[in-house]
């Protein structure tokens, strides 16, 4: 019996993604009974934990900042696929604002929720959270520029009525997003990789992969494949659960936008858990790489994809934020700048970020 438990403990990260993808195929597009909904929810949680495990294996093999980049890009690519598929199957105002609502939710979750939790865990365990201000500052500047270019400017342009880009403006925003994201990846992984390596509380830059034996190439490739399977399962099962969430939201009398927030929270769970785990090991820079990298990828990959898909999609594409969301975005950028500049943060900074995140959630429920 003990051997069986140990064998399961060693293999669950392989079995759960496989079972989850099979259940996803069997439940996709179907109306589910309450028992099946519960099973799907449990598999969703298991797939999230499995994704975090395999992401850490891949990260340990390729090193930072490549490891956090792998998870951020993988989650975002699948998230983009989910957005496009939902836009194709939806219609009306829900389809028009889906990309904007999802991207903005991802920015607020990563820049306030994940960053706040990361700083909280690190400050509680190590008193002060230490990170590299050069790399984190560059990432934050990129996020602020992308968010303003793609989510704020459409509200003020005049070529088209409403908070929407004209086709030429949308094409420019898409190309600019790809260029900025590509430039960041080049800076992060090639030209200034040391700016994105973890920093200890003593201020020493550490290549954390040098302290333990790296996984073999075979193990890494298996984990990479299982990571993709787990992430597909997370996003797919989240969409399978979305009708239940929609009915619950409607029954509670909450705005439709709450559904997008809940789905974004589910999709970003693997990155959240990975970031918190890294912060607990005094690797705050890895956590910030995950958070800001995900925010950047969410904008830099989603907007170009939506711009391309809009050629075939019918109906308007609303990208411009409303006044409330613009205030939250401006507050997030300002507070994040003050957090990043010193390269050190305490419980106070974590509390500020989590307060902004709580305000975002509250205003989503009560706009």
TrEMBL record:
Keywords: Membrane, Transmembrane, Transmembrane helix. It is found in: Membrane. The keyword Metal-binding does not apply. The chain crosses the membrane at residues 12-29, 35-54, 66-88, 103-124, 136-156, 168-186, 220-238, 250-269, 290-313, 319-340, 347-365. One of its GO terms (cellular component) is plasma membrane. It comes from the Bacteria. It holds the Pfam family Na_Ca_ex. Residues 35-189, 223-365 form the Sodium/calcium exchanger membrane region domain. InterPro entries: Alkaline_pH_Ca-Antiporter, NaCa_Exmemb. It is a multi-pass membrane protein. It comes from Actinomadura barringtoniae. The keyword Hydrolase does not apply. This is Sodium/calcium exchanger membrane region domain-containing protein. One of its GO terms (molecular function) is potassium:proton antiporter activity.
